[in-house]
Amino acid sequence: MNDTKKFRILAMSDTHDLHKNLDISTLPEADIFIHAGDFTQNSYRGELNRFMEFLDKLPYKHKIVIAGNHDFVYDVENYQNKHKPKRHPHEKLDAKV
Prior knowledge:
The protein is an alpha/beta fold.
């Protein structure tokens, strides 16, 4: 008897805040979803919030997210010290991530 278990992985990356244009109903079935970085373009918190809303809508049981070089909103020191001068005027540095 073969006890081999199979699972399906859907992986994507480099959506740069364009994931909002994806029709979720057209994505293939999978057991695991992986986003392998660069889900933001400018690392604005609004982009992060939109990505989190996108993730919430995905039907996959397991979701793995890896931050890319555009996603430094997760690095508080980097975000505050390096990103502050060029951040969007509506972005708040003290907002919770």
